[in-house]
Design goal:
Layout: E1 2-10, H1 14-45, H2 51-62, H3 75-93, E2 109-114, E3 118-121, E4 124-127, E5 136-137, E6 150-155, E7 161-169, E8 181-186, E9 190-194, E10 199-201, H4 205-208, H5 210-221, H6 228-262, E11 265-269, H7 273-276, H8 283-289, H9 291-305, E12 308-312, E13 338-339, E14 349-350, H10 351-369
Parallel strand pairs: 8-11, 11-12
Antiparallel strand pairs: 1-5, 1-7, 2-6, 3-4, 6-7, 8-9, 9-10, 13-14
Length: about 400
């Protein structure tokens, strides 16, 4: 079986929304307070505070007059947020993420409920301290006999409520084998270029709604801070961002599913997208293309359906190397979309399709003999997983 999350939109009643808003607010408060406590302990005493200590602090906070309202909501989401904080610190110590940050109210929020804090019966979901089941819009059915192990309620800045049900999905089966293999080169004008010669244009969802977003943000900037009109204007901006995100996610899911169904092996470059967005001229275009999200979807879908995903070295000169003779040109600016090979005389080489073919060849070399696809005399170390040196966030005064 494979763990899989099913996400649905739901419409809470007035009482449910009031309770869920208070629950999310308490989760945010406990998370921020625990983060501040752990940070202060390190700065003052050079001590590491773990999950057990913060759990004891939570018990003490509930007994104070100032924070006694924490007893009005379910205790499970409060404990879960401390576990999430512990995981965030583990990722930081393992150099997989930056230092944990404080949660902000304007970013919405979420609350996680385990089995002891919800009831699932006859396809209906009751959360702790809720008298009525959630009014969920079942856009797709859960697998028969499936029962959620974890329920996560999320409130988006646009005002939409979502619930995510984590289940053991027994319906996921490996796809039948196929002889097709593909190498994928990502870009900005062309989202992907494959070794088969397929070119998928970048929809550029952000640019499509950019003028509308710009006008809404201009209206927001003129509103008085703290006013109801500013809150309404901020929701309008959030709804436009939600439209962009939904369109981008839908497109990427359809594209990645098609690639996984048609190919038994997919070769991609292990790009450092986080470093690439530091380029001021290309940051917005790279973020809109969402290469990282596309690679993430390819990774877990290949694992689900029995496909093979190969990541090659990000420093491999896939665009500069001729796929006919292997000649590598010294320079190939981004504005040069096709070039002629001085080695074999091939003319009109499309740089993107050529890169896709080279990526596929490098991926096959890695699979067959574990060959090193790094360029000759290239001595960069740690190219696959660079350490993240994020600055620690100091506690609020």
């Amino acid at each position: 079986m494979t763990e899989r999350a099913y996400k649905y939109r739901f419409y809470p009643t007035y009482e449910q929304e009031n309770l869920l808003r208070r629950t999310i607010g308490c989760v945010r408060l406990v998370y921020n307070k625990a983060l501040a406590t752990r940070t202060e302990a390190w700065y003052d005493k050079k001590e590491r505070v773990g999950y057990k200590e913060t759990s004891s602090f939570l018990t003490g906070w509930k007994k104070t007059d100032e924070l006694d309202f924490l007893n009005e909501v379910s205790c499970v989401p409060l404990q879960q947020c401390l576990r999430h904080l512990q995981k965030a610190f583990s990722n930081f110590w393992g150099k997989r993420a930056k230092y944990p940050r404080f949660k902000k109210k304007r970013n919405g929020g979420s609350a996680e409920f385990t089995k002891s804090a919800f009831k699932w019966k006859d396809g209906k979901l009751w959360l702790a301290k809720c008298k009525e089941p959630l009014n969920i819009v079942w856009s797709r059915y859960l697998p028969s006999g499936a029962s959620p192990s974890t329920v996560t309620v999320k409130f988006e800045p646009s005002g939409r409520w979502y619930v995510s049900l984590l289940i053991d999905d027994h319906t996921i089966e490996q796809l039948p084998p196929t002889d097709k293999k593909v190498g994928i080169d990502v870009g900005i004008s062309r989202l992907i270029s494959t070794s088969d010669g397929d070119l998928i244009a970048n929809p550029k969802h952000f640019n499509r709604l950019y003028q509308k977003l710009k006008a809404a943000q201009k209206v927001l900037s003129r509103k008085t801070k703290g006013s109801n009109n500013r809150h309404k204007a901020r929701q309008i901006v959030a709804k436009i961002h939600a439209q962009i995100k939904d369109a981008r996610t839908d497109f990427l899911h359809k594209l990645t599913t098609k690639l996984v169904r048609e190919n038994s092996l997919i070769a991609i470059e292990d790009l450092g997208v986080g470093n690439m967005v530091k380029n001021r001229k290309l940051a917005r275009s790279i973020s809109d293309a969402a290469w990282g999200e596309m690679f993430r979807q390819l990774e877990y879908k290949c694992e689900w359906y029995g496909r093979e995903l190969v990541k090659i070295d990000r420093f491999y000169p896939s665009s500069k190397r001729c796929n006919h003779c292997g000649f590598v040109v010294d320079e190939l600016p981004l504005d040069v979309r096709s070039w002629d090979c001085p080695g074999c005389g091939t003319t009109g080489i499309d740089r993107d399709i050529n890169a896709g073919k080279n990526i596929l060849a490098a991926g096959l070399a890695v699979i067959v003999c574990g060959a090193d696809v790094r360029p000759d005399n290239h001595s960069v170390k740690g190219q696959l997983r660079k350490t993240c040196k994020g600055r620690k966030q100091k506690p609020r005064s």
